[in-house]
Amino acid sequence: MEIKPSVSLCMIVKNEEACLEKCLMSMQELVSEVVIVDTGSTDRTIEIAQKYHAIIKYYQWENDFAKARNYSLSFATQDWILVLDADEYLRESDRMLFQSAICEKNVDSYYIKTLSFTEDNSPQSCVINLNHRLFRRDKGFYYKGAIHEQLVTDQSVNSQFSEIGFYHTGYLKEVVKAKNKPLRNKAILEELLKKDPNNPFHQFNYANELVQLKRYEEAIEYYNKAYAVTSPQQGYMPKLMIFRINTLLTNHQEKEALAAANEGIKIYPHFTYLMFIKGTLEERLGFITKAIRSYEACLKLGKPDVQFEFASASEGLWPHLKLATLYGRYDDYELALDHYKKYLMLDSSQYKILYSIAACLSKMGMTDKELARELEAYLPQTQVSYQVLLIDLLMKQKCYELAQSYLEKSRPLERSSQLIYLYGKNQFYRGNYEESDRFFKQYIPFDCFKTVERYYYLMYLMTKNQDYSVLSLSYSSVYYEINNHLEKREVTPLTEEGWRTMYYLIEELLLGSKEEWIDQIEQIISPILTTNQRLELIQVYLKYQAYCRIQPQLAAYFIQGGELNISMIQLLEKWQRK
């Protein structure tokens, strides 16, 4: 019987109690040995490591990652070594792939995929990096470089790319902020640049830390220096290209970012993610037909060679969504629907896209019943949660009578607090305020008053029933500000929260077709709106096809000195078509 190769997991850690256990748990039964080198933990890190029978060694930190890594490797005794950080853990579906990889007799090391979350628990948001982390112990591998250390060996070896993926949480904003890594890394890189000021790899990494510190002008300067002398054959060049473009965009240099993207595509014509970025820049700058061609090119390119993998969603999910949105904006609803459907086929969990699908179907002139039948095709009717979604979709398209019939079919409503909430909401839109109040009162014990307070405040405005007033119910403080403006006609500008709440109130009135109340609110707030707030108001009028309300707000926008920017040009184009 052939003996399976063994693996040592080697890590350097400091104060990693929040994530270490998840990392170690993911590697259980895959590694024979865990070597933990601690550089000064003061939390439960050591206790957690002991729970997993780790070999624990202590190390005085010297601002040199390679030295610390090599120290950890010196204690490994198994056939293979896997190097991880505490904020990384194996993708569950890759366990067998990992076992197969270490059984390959002719391979000495692997580049694995680090899948860095940019949104919490969202695999679709992951940025992909290749990292040289899995290697045979007897091939003389060691680390070089005080930071962003590189794995090297003086022996002739066969290294391969692997599909093994490790999720990484270290790029999440709250994690970066809590660990204060950018300042630490910046200090190390400054020392390296003193010794070797023209090293493009150090310049690239230094720019990355400056971006984390929001020093964008300086970051661009260092990206430009690195970009000018880095060969396209360098492994980090694709990342340098993307990070440089993203930083130009963050620094409001859209035209320069697009020029850089166009140059990059000439160098790497099969770089799908770069093509997607190019499309977003073209769309942002108003080059819509070019953007459409770029998004369609992403779909044709698909999954690139492994060194150009950056975000898998750019290979299908995101381009379909972008194309659907653009075709919908220009009233080609059939093509929009086609791309929305393909988007859902790639990720059926994105149920919110059904609201966009419903809007497209409605604009195609379907009757309420035809719309419901089309939407039902997307939803398994046996589950209460899908009934809730279908009813809400119908309400968003103002199909209140049909939504009511579905609510009646869903009795007893007590099966779901959400059904009770929707019943109250639908009665509100139909103008049955006493019924709305009755069902909202049944719902509040399941949630809180805040969820329904906008409906109560609107019912108070429209009925003057004091039982719904700000003096009678536990409204959020922002409603006192709203009430002062609407009842006392206060002329001071709205706070950001005040405007956001007012916006939602107007949206609910548009959904309920309460035109006279929109007139009254608009008359009061119009003199105090900023240009940005007025632009948002115009956009919500356009969304709900309140076209007659747009002309006065456009005139006021330009009288106020509002800019004829890309957003406004696109809005004007859409309004003129209507």
Question: How does this model look, in words?
Answer:
The structure is a single chain. It contains 27 helices and ten strands. The protein has 578 residues and is of the alpha/beta class. The strands form two sheets. An eight-stranded mixed β-sheet has the order 3-2-1-4-7-6-10-5, with helices on both faces. The chain has a two-stranded antiparallel sheet with strand order 8-9. Strand 8 (142-144) and strand 9 (150-152) form a beta hairpin. The longest helix has 16 residues, at 496-511. The radius of gyration is 29 Å and the shape is globular.
Short description:
It is built from 27 helices and ten strands. It has helices at 20-26, 45-51, 65-73, 95-102, 173-179, 181-195, 200-212, 216-229, 237-250, 254-267, 272-284, 288-301, 317-329, 333-346, 353-363, 368-376, 384-396, 400-409, 417-429, 433-443, 453-463, 478-487, 496-511, 515-525, 531-543, 550-559, 566-577; strands spanning 7-13, 33-38, 55-58, 80-83, 88-90, 109-116, 127-136, 142-144, 150-152, 159-168. The strands form two sheets. An eight-stranded mixed β-sheet has the order 3-2-1-4-7-6-10-5, sandwiched between helices. The chain has a two-stranded antiparallel ribbon with strand order 8-9.
What keyword list fits this structure?
alpha/beta; single chain; globular; 8-stranded mixed β-sheet; about 575 residues; two-stranded antiparallel ribbon
